[in-house]
Amino acid sequence: MLNHKLKAFTIMEVTIALLVSGILIAIVYVAFAVVGNSYHTFVFKNEESADLAQLDLLLSRDFRRADLIEKTDSGLFFKNNKDNIRYVLNSDYIVRTNGITDTFKFKTTRTNMLFEQHAVETGPDALNNRVDELELDLLLHNDKVTFHYYKLYSSANLFEQDTHAGN
């Protein structure tokens, strides 16, 4: 009987190789999960910031172009010679309607509408619901973001809205 030795790995070497491979696979899996979650969080925050920038752009443009801004029971109404724009200011969202409807899902913590530095009231007994200033506090990533918009009315706009202004 001849005694031949085969070249092979021992069971201990195979077990150690499998253990090291398992540890490396676990480390790679956890690193991949962390990077994936970071990427999704980054994309979500960027989309939310882009939506907030879009809302700011639209409100700024609408304030600048409007001939008259009025406070309504649900928000703001912008009148100009081309079209009318309505904003619904809810505590959980803001809706802008101008032919198409844009919805911005931001929590509103404070809305302050003023005309000549006095609070604007709505309702049947309100004489004037014209707005020339809007302060808006929104929540973005659990941080309060304050926006401030101001409308400079021309004297023609003011006389057109109040026929007794010159008397």
Walk me through this protein's architecture.
- The chain is an alpha+beta fold and 167 residues long.
- The chain has one domain (13-161).
- The chain contains 2 helices and 9 strands, in the order αβββββββββα.
- The strands form 2 sheets. A 5-stranded antiparallel beta sheet has the order 1-2-3-4-5, with helices on one face. A 4-stranded antiparallel beta sheet has the order 7-6-8-9, covered by helices on one side.
- β1 and β2 form a beta hairpin.
- The longest helix has 55 residues, at 11-65.
- The chain crosses the membrane at residues 12-35.
- Keywords: Membrane, Transmembrane, Transmembrane helix.
- It comes from Mucilaginibacter ginsenosidivorax.
Please render the helix and strand layout as text.
Elements: H1 11-65, E1 68-71, E2 75-79, E3 84-89, E4 94-98, E5 100-104, E6 107-115, E7 118-119, E8 133-140, E9 143-150, H2 155-161
Largest sheet: 5 strands, antiparallel
- Rg, alpha carbons: 31 Å
Strand order within the widest sheet? 1-2-3-4-5
Question: Quaternary arrangement of the chains shown?
Answer: single chain
Can you tell me the overall shape? rod-shaped
Percent helix: 25-40%
Low-confidence stretches: none
CA distance, first residue to last residue:
129 Å
Number of beta-strand segments: 9
Derived from helix and strand composition plus strand pairing, the structural class reads: alpha+beta
Number of separate structural domains: 1
- Strand fraction equals 25-35%
What's the number of helices?
Answer: 2
Mean pLDDT over all positions: 87
Helix/strand order, N-terminal first: HEEEEEEEEEH
InterPro entries: N_methyl_site (IPR012902)
Protein name: Prepilin-type N-terminal cleavage/methylation domain-containing protein
Keywords: Membrane, Transmembrane, Transmembrane helix
Transmembrane segments: 12-35
